[in-house]
């Protein structure tokens, strides 16, 4: 299946989208990647969704990526004697380790790690930032706070600590269990929540042991400060604007989004822009104009993918949400200003032979009548480098490794095809032109670019570029052994 757009769509599955009919409809409407949210649902439910996705993949005859999103540590207050109390600005409020039900003066914070890390002046945000507390004094088992922004606080509301790097691992015991389950199931990507430092990503990578690619979710100020180091060890990035918008001033999020997208593009690593993209479509068949502009902005910036969360997982209009996102993407990418913005933001990188090969492929494609860039890639690195160039022609990623094809489904502009292994360049060219023609990318009279590495089956060895005619007899007549 070849999409008529370059940006990819990630759709979260949930109660509203767990049947074969619905998942198939979402795929036909435009979903390229399916997200399994490990915060909700049992392992049995997730395994059934995984089974259905693979069945839909087989029916479509093209790779589909599955992303398992780990929950991460959840920091919450305890319970209240009356279920809820109202906090008034200026009043004092104590957080401590006492498990007794709370009242208007105090409540349990059952996380000693937070209390150990707090310092006077630190800010605590409760219930997605609706309440704001300022630490006045603290110790090993308490924090005396002043209510800065008041309101109702109730049982087990979430707590954010934006000013402090917390001494917490990104993987809780639940996350470790979920990670092993997801890897055994055969997911393609793991999204890691609560990332604060590159060591968090390294820990998840060690546990995954090559069974899935690691995506770092950027949702904490500490991750922004350490972003370059995190990007260096991650396989991809998700700009998770929900918690990011809670822990940082909301006006900071758009420039951060743009900066992170640019850095991911330069590193040839896929970046997803996520959270509240079409939020109103949970209950409405039509999005707001502001939501459409938000999706369009991420596409204009060059993001590899845009994501639906509750819209497709629990909303009333999951197929309509995917369709809307697909339609917005097609319209944006047909805008001449889109091409100008993408090309003006391209940064030249010529550090390796592979960098030079893919840059040359893009330049040749844009100055001649080449119809597609076909890249053979065992590990996926060459296809990712071609996607970084954001060429004007389609990218055809050919690989004999099914896992590579699935992971590449998340990269901008890539159409992934699984082919038989080859050991000679002429057969690579032959597979490329057959795939390009079968997908309608080229006809017999057209040319395509083929990139590959010799010797074959050696990751990172891209060293050949050929402009090839899409006529088999010419390949065998002119291609050397």
How would you characterize this protein structure?
- This protein is α/β, with parallel strands linked by helices and 481 residues long.
- The chain contains 18 helices and 21 strands.
- The strands form 4 sheets. The chain has an 8-stranded parallel barrel with strand order 1-2-3-12-13-14-15-16, surrounded by 10 helices.
- Helix 16 links the parallel strand 18 (395-399) and strand 19 (414-418).
- Helix 1 packs parallel to helix 12, helix 10 crosses helix 12 (318-333) and helix 14 (353-367) crosses helix 15 (381-389).
- The longest helix is centred in the N-terminal third of the chain and has 18 residues, at 43-60.
- The radius of gyration is 24 Å and the shape is elongated.
- The model has no long low-confidence stretch (mean pLDDT 93).
Describe the main β-sheet briefly: 8 strands, parallel, barrel
Cα shape: elongated
What is the mean predicted local confidence, pLDDT? 93
**Order of strands side by side in the largest beta sheet?**
1-2-3-12-13-14-15-16
The CATH topology assignment of the largest domain is TIM Barrel
Flag low-confidence runs.
none
CATH superfamily of the largest domain: Phosphoenolpyruvate-binding domains
* Rg from Cα: 24 Å
Strand content: 15-25%
The CATH architecture of the largest domain: Alpha-Beta Barrel
CATH class category of the largest domain: Alpha Beta
